[in-house]
Write a structure and sequence with these properties.
By secondary structure, this protein is α/β, with parallel strands linked by helices. Helix 8 packs parallel to helix 9. The strands form 4 sheets. Strands 1, 4, 14, 15, 16, 17, 20, 21, 22 and 23 form a 10-stranded mixed β-sheet that branches. The chain is built from 12 helices and 23 strands. It binds ligand LLP. Ligand LLP binds next to helix 10.
Amino acid sequence: MIASMTTATGGFRHEIAGASVAALAKQYGTPIYVYDAETIRRRCRDLAAWDTVRFAQKACSNLAVLDLIRREGVLVDAVSTGEIHRALAAGYPAHAAHQPGPDGLPPAQPIVYTADIFDRDSLEAVVKHGIHVNCGSADMLEQLAERMPGADVTLRVNPGFGHGHSQKTNTGGEGSKHGIWHEEIPDVLRRAEWAGLAVSGLHMHIGSGTDLVHLAEVAEALERVAIEVGRSLTMVSAGGGLPVPYKPGEVHADLSGYFTLWDATRKRLEDRFGHRIRLEIEPGRYLTAESGSVITEVRAIKTQGARKYLLVDAGFNTLARPVLYGSYHPMSLCPQDAAPRGAAEEVAVGGPLCESGDIFTQTDGGFVATRSLPAAAVGDLLVIEIAGAYGFVMASNYNSKPLPAEVLIDGTAHRLVRARQTPEDLVRGECV
Ligand code: LLP
């Protein structure tokens, strides 16, 4: 079934952060991911009120991006051995010194491993490097205690409710596998004590791409659990989930109101416990989404009955968010020549994959929609915007397509920060 839905108008776009779209495509080929360093820096600085900003690197884990973010004083979250490896490779120390900082706050751990399980590799990596763990399941406690007796841990708590831009990104409530169920906390605290681990922090993350109304409820839920944990607490984390505007008319969230709410929660806990508490936030999307675009080339234009399709050289192997969640990404056209273009028209935009779901203009449930774009010609470039979070990191080799290149623009310079895969890369490790 095809919905007759249309979405907002995209226009022309010739530059990304001052760099010519045509020149980027010519130099690096298509499809490519392009990130603007200054946008990432600006987003890091927006959150300066928080004691610790911890980047959920799953959103965009290129080493150059991690390095840039580290230089902004932002710490990092790791959800796998691979992400621990990336954090170390980007220059993050494995753990903090033990003394409190000049502000009297307990030290912040540069890298935190947050997960609901230890696979065998990640447990080895945590032990080897002495990385702080945020446990999302109680079974992790004994597994850690056996290898790192006396460690401090953070508990990730599922407060019993959650919210995300899609049911697939809702990480709270009974429908979610994430975190330790809030009613289990007393039992889990006993298990931690028996295992000889101190619970020094609490963390809640209810979902990705939610809104501040839902996020605000987390502070209250966390405060209740913090009181159960008691004086061993020296850190609370608001998790991630900060939204960014994707669609025309959407606006940025009120960050200062959100900080004020959490700061008040933290202060009440400080008064109750009689010591300082570090306040963390753990955004992924907020720091990188708006910095990133995909540049792709229009390779075919065709009409199927009444519907016109632009087929580009990026597919859901390049950017999976539309096929996974029906996500909306703004798009604009960069004509490759000076020939006049016709009036804007409604088109569906799809990629090269042998699968009907390979459509960028689709809504949740897989219904093909259209977008109003300036009339395009084969060879024009299409810029798919706000693709810097959960973009490249969810790209795949489906249909044996190479992973795209990544380019970082910084001021007037740009450079390749990940080479496009080659056909040899695609078969590396295979044998007959
Ligand atoms: N902390 C934890 C424990 C998380 O699981 C996540 C995201 C974050 C922080 C960062 O959330 P953010 O600030 O980016 O909303 N692939 C989906 C998003 C999945 C998010 C998974 N966890 C998408 O493309 O929208």
